[in-house]
């Protein structure tokens, strides 16, 4: 059964009805991220795609409010018309799960707290999330936050709800910060570095005074799949460093970075269109994968640990890697069979205190391998207590993040 509320009052009624019936709900917007997390065991779908529209946009105040089912593409188009953007650069993972591009909703973006390559400079979705209105698993309407950071009092529930994957509340209105689009964007490319040398080069760039916005490393096999000619035709690995801002400043900083990185190998520079296309590929990752059916892991580690973790995994497991966030985010593609390499991957990540999320795998694999990294006992107990407060009957997306949540 599919429930489709068209206003907040109806949403509250539907959640309250499900609570009374003891009927779990699967929350969806456009459904572009249904393959993320454990398979759902809910007979009823709560479809929030009918809750659409921008309700407030004040370009001068850099703030926007929109209903949760509003397409991200529509929001980005409205922002672009005023020279503004979502600075956390939300990735479009629709194609990653076999769906269309441009279909995801702002509610799904906030609920999953995903962010693109600019995260090392601008933060994640939760860092731009100012306020919301929602319905809890108790069937109660509530709200938190406001239109500016200084209006937030009490507990900052935005930080809690962002990244909760719909397990705590059904969002119906979200308010978030927006920022001006940079006047100019360029990318300095370093060719031929291995993962260790590339990580050192990215660290040098990020530690320089040149205000780097993003840094990523594409091994040769990954670079060969790029649609950007300078990258695809390189025949070797490509390390990319992005710089944004006023045109004169960008030109000076790019020149300085070319000199800094030029001591480590051959360098090139991408200007606006090619630069934008490369970072969109890195952000969305799907087009750079070796196989549309490959399992995909998202590893979060300290940047300097990235190459060692990738090498440790590669000794026991056939895989391909892509490094983002200066090396702190490692995309790892493995065969989507057995446990998708979970034992090897998580052992390597645990050794350096990181965590590994199985972002994509067949449902049969995700049913037996926890997609989200298992939490320490104390943290897991805290997560259960939080769930008990918002959704004690386990009505909202039960089991999405963990079997007991």
Please describe what this structure looks like.
- This protein is an alpha+beta fold.
- The chain folds into three domains: about 1-180, Uridine Diphospho-n-acetylenolpyruvylglucosamine Reductase, domain 3 (2-Layer Sandwich); about 185-285, Alpha-Beta Plaits, CATH 3.30.70.2190; about 290-370, Alpha-Beta Plaits, CATH 3.30.70.
- It contains 14 helices and 18 strands.
- The chain has helices at about 10-20, 70-80, 105-110, 120, 155-160, 195-205, 220-225, 230, 245-260, 270-285, 305-315, 340-350, 365-370, 375-390; strands at about 1-5, 25-30, 45, 55-60, 65, 85, 130-135, 140-145, 170-175, 180, 185-190, 210-220, 240-245, 265-270, 295-300, 320-325, 330-335, 355-360.
- The strands form five sheets. Strands 4-5-9-7-8 form a five-stranded antiparallel beta sheet, sandwiched between helices. Strands 12-13-11-14 form a four-stranded antiparallel beta sheet.
- Helix 11 runs antiparallel to helix 12 (about 340-350).
- The chain is globular, with a radius of gyration of 21 Å.
- The two termini are about 20 Å apart.
- The relative contact order is 0.13.
- The mean pLDDT is about 95.
List the helices and strands and how they pair.
Layout: E1 2-3, H1 8-21, E2 25-28, E3 44-47, E4 54-58, E5 63-67, H2 72-81, E6 84-85, H3 106-112, H4 119-122, E7 129-136, E8 141-145, H5 157-161, E9 169-177, E10 179-180, E11 184-191, H6 195-206, E12 212-218, H7 220-223, H8 229-232, E13 238-245, H9 247-262, E14 267-270, H10 272-284, E15 295-300, H11 306-316, E16 319-324, E17 329-334, H12 342-350, E18 355-360, H13 363-368, H14 377-390
Parallel strand pairs: 1-3, 2-3
Antiparallel strand pairs: 4-5, 5-9, 6-10, 7-8, 7-9, 11-13, 11-14, 12-13, 15-17, 15-18, 16-17
Helix pairs in contact: 11-12
Protein name: Glycolate oxidase FAD binding subunit
GO molecular function: catalytic activity; FAD binding
Organism: Stella humosa
